[in-house]
Design a protein that fits this description.
With about 375 residues, this protein is of the alpha/beta class. Helices cover about 25% and strands about 30% of the residues.
Length: about 375
């Protein structure tokens, strides 16, 4: 048995100071005051924060790799990199691309989920597109955008439908209702995004089952005083969740505060939406099939200049949010508990509780990642 001893342990919305966590066989066996447990291995966390592992439900790539590479090796390199930044599990996110490229990516994710590998655990796939509105395509490839239909989705997903945990779709595309209702019946999270829909159409989409908003504010109809748009619809509805990119590029700090102030900490997930340039120098990269120029850490399409994902990591998102006044405990919730619910793993990940996976991040006083544990195994953050 292993004990993580003496840290400030995150417990829902508070900290238990000088607490011990008992771990065995990759699971948390209990949390108690310091010194209650005896174990064969003791990890000293005194003076540090012990958090659940971060969960990223929207990530395209990093360290020069992309989910659309269709490569197990690329996914392994991504898993290693994000683990060193506190992310212990994630949804591999595709971009709008050809059927062949999408199927190759799905196969690679399916293959890696069946093997042992180092780094963050891949929980499944977030399919971003191809059932989106060309008028809000963002960095998605317009030539591969498709009308929505159950048959079209089943054909695209093929034998890998079971690993698709969420899909981003616009409510204002042909067939959106049919496909949304099918996916909801299968337990797949349907996210609204890349849409030019009116407020009324967005409310319809929410009623169909589109209860999450992809990269909130970005690539959707904004809030106006006579037309509340997608932003207004999701801010109004208590039965929805949203995700935010806290890099201060995609969303201004004040807009972050407004969204979270209205939604509440239990309805917001912090994501990276990172692409291949995360962890790399400025230069030219690809997001799926689209060429991207990264300058000063900001990724934009080579043609057109639209923002094209980010170079953010989740530990940096945490520090960013704390720097603008959010309490650490509230930021941790948005990086752990909320995304666990979106990914469908909230009954065994996202909390430090008895019976949960021992996915843990130890942060020092400056909120840098000190140690990472994935299912109880320490990950070397220097690797």
């Amino acid at each position: 048995m292993m004990i993580i001893r003496g840290g400030a342990v995150y417990q829902k919305d508070r900290w238990e100071h000088d607490a011990d966590i008992l771990i065995e066989d990759g699971k948390i066996l209990g949390i108690a005051p310091k010194g209650k447990y005896d174990g064969e291995q003791i990890i000293d966390a005194s003076g540090c924060y012990v958090c659940p592992g971060f969960i990223d439900v929207h990530i395209h790539g990093c360290v020069g790799r992309d989910v659309m590479d269709g490569s197990v090796e690329s996914l392994e390199e991504m898993a290693k990199f994000v683990a060193s930044h506190g992310t212990t599990s994630f949804l591999a996110t595709t971009t709008t691309s050809s059927r062949e490229a999408t199927r190759n990516s799905l196969k690679a994710v399916n293959d890696i989920m069946k093997k042992l590998y180092q780094g963050a655990e891949i929980l499944g796939v977030h399919l971003e597109g191809p059932f989106i509105n060309p008028g809000a395509k963002g960095a998605q490839a317009e030539q591969y955008i498709l009308p929505a239909s159950r048959d079209g989705f089943v054909d695209l997903a093929g034998e890998y439908e079971g690993i698709i945990k969420r899909i981003t779709m616009a409510p204002d595309v042909e067939g959106a209702r049919e496909l949304t209702e099918y996916l909801v019946s299968k337990g797949t999270v349907v996210s609204m995004g890349h849409t030019v829909a009116s407020y009324e159409k967005c409310i319809e989409g929410i009623e169909w089952g589109m209860r999450h908003a992809t990269h909130f504010y970005n690539a959707m109809t904004p809030l106006k005083h006579r037309e509340p748009g997608a932003v207004g619809a999701f801010l109004e509805r208590d039965d929805t969740t949203i995700e935010l990119i806290a890099d201060f590029v995609h969303v201004h700090p004040t807009a972050l505060k407004i969204a979270i102030g209205l939604k509440g900490y239990d309805k917001v997930a912090l994501i990276t939406d990172s692409m291949a340039a995360a962890g790399m120098a400025d230069g030219e990269y690809y997001l799926g099939s689209e060429a991207v120029i990264v300058k000063d850490g900001v990724a934009r399409l080579k043609e057109g200049g639209n923002l094209a994902g980010s170079t953010l990591t989740q530990d940096q998102a945490l520090r960013n949010m704390v720097s603008i006044g959010f309490a650490l405990s509230d930021v941790v919730r948005m990086l752990t508990e909320v995304p666990a619910g979106i990914a469908g793993v909230s009954d065994y990940k996202g909390r430090i509780e008895k019976g949960y996976d021992a996915d843990l991040v130890i942060l020092d006083n400056e909120l840098n990642v000190n140690r990472v544990f994935i299912r109880g195994n320490q990950y070397d953050i220097c690797s």
